[in-house]
Structures are given as C-alpha cells and as structure tokens.
Amino acid sequence: MSENHDHHNQSGLIAFLGSMAFVFVFFIYIVFINKGVTLDEKVQDAAPVGAPKFELASVKDPWNGAPEVITAGQKLYKANCAMCHGEKGDLVGGIPNARNFTKDPWKQGDGIINHFKVVQNGIPGTQMASFKASLKPYERWAILSFIETLAAKKSTDKPEDVAAFAAKAE
Ligand code: HEC
Questions:
Q1: Cβ atoms of 70 and 145 closer than 8 Å
Q2: From 49-53, 90-94, 138-142, the region with the lowest mean pLDDT
C-alpha cells in the first residue's frame, strides 16, 4: 500500500519538476536569449531558409541571362526605359519614335555589345540618352539581358567576346 502511494507521488513529482524546468528554461530564453523581432527581420525571414541574398553586383557575367539577372534587369528596365520603350519593349505605354524591341530592326548594329554601346553613349540627336552616369555597367548588362528575352532579333555575340568587351567597358 505504501508502495502504491509512493508511486503516485513520484510521477507527480516528475511532472512537477518537468514543468518547473520548462518554465525556468523559457524564462531564461525570454530574458537573456530572445532579442525580439523587428519588422526587418520578419521580412528577411520570409526568404527561403538558407537561400543566399542575390547581389547583382557580384555576378561575373551579367550578360549571360541567368534568371535572377533577368528579373533584376526587368526591374531596372521598368524604372529607366519603360517610359519610352514600353513595359514589354513594344512601345505600349512608351513613345512612338523609340525602338520597338519586339519587331524593329537594330539601327546601331546587332548584338548585345552594340546595344551596350547605345546605352552607354546614347544616340546623339535622338531622345535616346546616355545612361553612363546613372546606371552601373552591370546594371546595363542586366537590363540588356532582359531586353534579349523580348527582342525580335537576338544577340549572337559570343560570351567570350562579350566578356572581353565588358572587361574594358565603363
Ligand atoms: C526618353 C526616352 C527613352 C528612354 C528613357 C530610353 N530610350 Fe532607348 N531609345 C529611345 C529612342 C527615341 C530610340 C530610337 C532612336 C533613333 O534611332 O531614332 C531608342 C533606341 C534604343 C535602342 C536601339 C538601338 C538600335 O541599335 O537600334 C536601344 C538598345 C535602347 N534604346 C535601349 C534603351 C535602354 C536599355 C533604356 C533604359 C536604360 C532606354 N533605351 C531608355 C528613347 C528612349
């Protein structure tokens, strides 16, 4: 009988000590470890766990049309080019005398190297201005990677030629 009595007390004690231990650990966590969550951290937490943050500036070959580069290029295009060339490069929402990338022929030469020169220097005597001061070279390459996806006439420039040109381009 006393054995049975002890047995009950023992499991009660274990449960009691267990919950005290939990409360203690939780208390330590709240007071000493948890630093709170700011809105910024919450937004960052929304990215998939372990996914590295994409940095366009660190891409070695932003002319090669990697999907993340095209996405970044599209954003830059919307902010800098869409008001004249249209969001989809077809002049819809743009101006009628700008180039329609989806069907017009290139007038300054085919290929992404020539397009880079246009964005770098502009086309004198037209509304196509130079973006040399306002966009970094890698930003211009990213925009051109995006334009390639909708261009009627794709670039056939060899990646090694583009790399050699890009190494000297400002
Ligand atoms: C203010 C209006 C305007 C903006 C903004 C603009 N463009 Fe243009 N762009 C033009 C016009 C107009 C032409 C056609 C010029 C001509 O040949 O008469 C043109 C032509 C071009 C061409 C054609 C070159 C060829 O060989 O035919 C490219 C490429 C181009 N723009 C890229 C861009 C990019 C990239 C941006 C954004 C970074 C941009 N443009 C922003 C007006 C603009």
A1: yes
A2: 49-53
